[in-house]
Amino acid sequence: MKPGKILIIDDEKDIRNLMEEIFTEEGYQVTTAANGQQAQKAWREQSADLVFLDIWMPDIDGITLLKQMIDEQVLENSCVVMMSGHGTIETAIEATRLGAYDFLEKPLSLAKLLITAERAMEHIQLHQENRHLKQKIPDQILPIGKSKVIAELRNTIKRLSKYTMPVLVVGESGTGKHRLAEAIHKISDRKDHKIVEINGADFDDQERLLVGEESNGHIFRGEFDRADGGTLIVSNFESLSSHGQDCLTQLIYDNSYSRLGSDRKIQLNVRVIVLTEVDPEELAKSRYIREDLINRLNVMPVYVPSLRQHTEDIPELIDYFVDFFLTTEGLNYREFDLSAKNVLRQYSWPGNFKELKNCIQRLLILGDGEVTDVEVKKLLESNKQDSSLPLATVDTSINLKQAKERFEAAYLSQMLRETGGNVTETAKLSGVERTNLYRKLKTLNIDPKNPK
């Protein structure tokens, strides 16, 4: 499948040709326009996923063209990246305020062009997928189940959605901490604004993309700029670097942040929701996390129960996942008999909510007709054996860094094989940001199309 359609609008022929050649080699479908009139004709005849728009052209300026695209609702299905060799901070701010996705300075960097295109394509794809799903199925926001612990969790979410204080969400891997954070956002007054997500372990690598940068009078707007009025979700909080903690503390206590290359404080109205698998008391004892940050976040921690604490909800969760996979992936319906449901209720679920979801998906894919207890037992036993394999093959003759790289290579290669080389799907399933995943694959020398 092609990565997408790109429209390049620039009066400089060499730049148009160079960009067209680069993106064509990457598999994009490329259309070019040398002036405003050609640009209008191009976007009206064929919609583009991504538009690179030069600000300064002889017949009409890019800001005016951007406004025309907004009037014609082109931005409903497209991202626009502005380009200029004479850009100013004011122009960049005006363009992004109007709805441009990003702003690039000339001379254009090949690496920056490709990364910007990848991020923009992912952004528009997720936007379209979310809109498509909302049309097909009702948005299930709150946790599912009739148990007492889940009923109390729903009430907690509803109470917290009314306030703006930071929230610490604590729970085992796979319990749905991320879904809980999204639920707080979606039923709050912030629901029409953006959610920005950070993996604590990746903060330093992604800092420029998040906070932006100011240099030589020019500005690059990060994700924080677009999150004003919205919610910031920080997962794997226990892995956040000291620098990341400083940034988060400034956001929480001062409602501000600073771009790279500048000490200027930028005010930001954002709600912070932090996710961790580590109990707050243990975080405090470790002395790795700033004490003032822990104290502020620990005012009202939310503990997400493990699935084994409310197994009575499993029949209802089974029905939900079956409907979900039928609607979103077109899988065939299979009914679970009572004995099969009882086996699933009696299982310990070390992987919690996420493991149950994967189990239901595999049962729908691998079989036909009614799901029996024999089939469920066989699958669960297979899962246990798969999870125990790494322990039996640990090589202690290498250092921890090498062991980690080997595991990451094996894990990502297997994930790519299961997704048919789909990097976007692999990024979602692995919880790794797509740009960061490309970087990891390159470092580990893994070809997504031919993972070994």
From TrEMBL:
Origin: domain of life: Bacteria
Keywords: ATP-binding, Nucleotide-binding, Phosphoprotein, Transcription, Transcription regulation, Two-component regulatory system
Domain spans labelled Sigma-54 factor interaction: 143-365
Positions of the Response regulatory domain: 5-121
Signal peptide: none
UniProt-listed GO biological process terms: phosphorelay signal transduction system; regulation of DNA-templated transcription
SUPFAM superfamilies linked: CheY-like, Homeodomain-like, P-loop containing nucleoside triphosphate hydrolases
GO MF, one annotated term: sequence-specific DNA binding
Entry-annotated residues carrying 4-aspartylphosphate: D54
SMART domains from the UniProt entry: REC
InterPro entries according to UniProt: AAA_lid_NorR (IPR058031), CheY-like_superfamily (IPR011006), Homeodomain-like_sf (IPR009057), HTH_Fis (IPR002197), P-loop_NTPase (IPR027417), Sig_transdc_resp-reg_receiver (IPR001789), Sigma_54_int (IPR002078), Sigma_54_int_dom_ATP-bd_1 (IPR025662)
A family per Pfam: Sigma54_activat
Name of the protein this chain belongs to: Fis family transcriptional regulator
